[in-house]
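Design a sequence for this backbone.
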């Protein structure tokens, strides 16, 4: 009897579990039907969102490629643009264009499809190219800041320091150093954790860039922190030098303006404060310009501001028949 009772109890429990599972399935079907009724065309919304995303990604990638290609073509075609500073600009444009071609295209495919479509090996290639070209782009900006520092703060040392050999050496390091933190550690598996390696093997459609602590510190220092500190230091010194030169130019301009105003006033007095003769009590009074100051003399009509031309003019314009004044040998005027 105990056995029968236990058997009947287990049968009852089994039937109850079956009823519960049937009720859960019915509830799930009802929820699915309700969702289908509320959103009868989910595919159209997903398709529209996919088109918008594709248009945005395509616009960004094409703009990056064409813009950087235009920079390279402009420097190549115009000889006046082939200066040392533009070597860095052309190399930077090349790095940015390769970022758009080799990194942003794979990123767009993942964003549009929702999964990685190119396998295990290409996942490492994509991560390596992304780190490589991004680091190279940042190092180019660092080299440009150093070049501008020497050109503005130390202009006399610039032609000696920034030669073609120096620029070539700097650009070579910019393209070689990022390979040490991109291809080598990524393909050898030094960049990530052991758990992430296992997850990648079990799920080949996943391509996530998960790094460990050591790689994060080394990579971020080389590709961000060190170049960032160098750029901030260089541009702060450039800003201080620019402020100093602006103040010096302001003082120089003020001095030039004051000197020009003084010369203009002096020439104005020399031009219009000439000799005026007028009779007064039977004598002639002469007003002359002596060293920039007006002076009057009575009884003596010698004008120290009179030039040789004026003297010759006075001599040539005497009326031989009825002259009012003549010039004595001692240099004085007398009235006839």
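Sequence:
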């Amino acid at each position: 009897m105990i056995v029968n009772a236990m058997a009947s109890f287990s049968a009852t429990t089994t039937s109850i579990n079956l009823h519960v599972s049937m009720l859960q399935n019915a509830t799930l079907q009802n929820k699915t039907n309700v969702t289908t009724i509320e959103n009868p065309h989910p595919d159209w919304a997903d398709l529209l969102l996919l088109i918008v995303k594709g248009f945005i990604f395509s616009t960004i990638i094409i703009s990056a490629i064409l813009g950087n290609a235009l920079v390279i073509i402009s420097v190549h075609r115009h000889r006046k643009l082939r200066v040392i500073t533009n070597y860095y600009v052309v190399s930077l444009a090349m790095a940015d264009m390769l970022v758009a071609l080799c990194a942003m295209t794979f990123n767009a495919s993942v964003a549009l499809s929702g999964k990685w479509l190119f396998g295990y090996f290409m996942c490492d290639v994509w991560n390596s190219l992304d780190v490589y070209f991004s680091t190279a782009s940042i190092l180019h900006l660092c080299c440009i800041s150093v070049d501008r520092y020497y050109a503005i703060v130390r202009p006399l040392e610039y032609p000696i320091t920034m030669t073609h050999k120096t620029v070539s050496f700097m650009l070579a390091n910019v393209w070689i150093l990022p390979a040490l933190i991109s291809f080598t550690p990524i393909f050898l598996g030094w960049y990530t954790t052991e758990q992430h390696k296992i997850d990648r093997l079990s799920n080949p459609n996943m391509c996530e860039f998960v790094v460990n602590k050591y790689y994060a510190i080394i990579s971020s220092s080389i590709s961000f922190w060190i170049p960032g500190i160098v750029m901030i230091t260089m541009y702060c010194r450039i800003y201080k030098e620019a402020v100093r030169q602006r103040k010096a130019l302001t003082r120089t301009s003020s001095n030039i303006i004051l000197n020009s105003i003084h010369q203009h006033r002096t020439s104005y007095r020399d031009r219009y404060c000439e000799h005026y003769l007028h009779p007064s009590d039977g004598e002639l009074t002469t007003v002359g310009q002596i060293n920039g100051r007006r002076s009057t003399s009575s009884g003596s009509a010698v004008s120290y501001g009179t030039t040789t031309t004026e003297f010759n003019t006075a001599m040539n314009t005497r009326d031989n028949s009825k002259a009012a004044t003549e010039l004595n040998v001692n240099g004085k005027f007398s009235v006839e």
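The radius of gyration is 46 Å.
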